[in-house]
Protein: SprT family zinc-dependent metalloprotease
Organism: Zobellella aerophila
Amino acid sequence: MTLPPALIIQVNDRVTDCLSLAGQRLGDDFPPPRVCFNQGGRIAGSAWLERWELRFNPVLLADNVGAFITEIIPHEVAHLVVFARYGKVRPHGREWQTVMRSVFGLEPSTRHRLDTHKVAPTFGYDCGCRLHRLSLRRHNKIQRGQSRYLCMHCGKLLTLAE
């Protein structure tokens, strides 16, 4: 998916602003990372620490600009900042949570709540007590006879819903 140039500039500017804010609040200087728009699947963004690179999902970005600007970009920048200051630590550990709160004023959250139906189709499976949504990978495993899944609530076998 090709993003409009103005949106790419907006994301890059937000990354720069987040790093600048982190530098001011922490008394550090962080170089600009490489910013890519090649993240796939249901993942909104990822930080590649050793490469000093951020990757964003172009489909989710185009549909959720506000969430990216306010939450997802600071989330990923926080990973880079923590890596620069502390090295390899737990991805969403105490250091990352502190940066999210003290630098960006955000409550740390490890998962986004974006609608991913465009990037990750799901399949309905029934157990008798509720409808379950399974990923394409799990659906294919069931279809090939490689896996069976049971409902965690009633314990019955999941079958493809009609």
Summary: Strands lie at 34-36, 45-48, 53-56, 122-126, 131-135, 159-160.
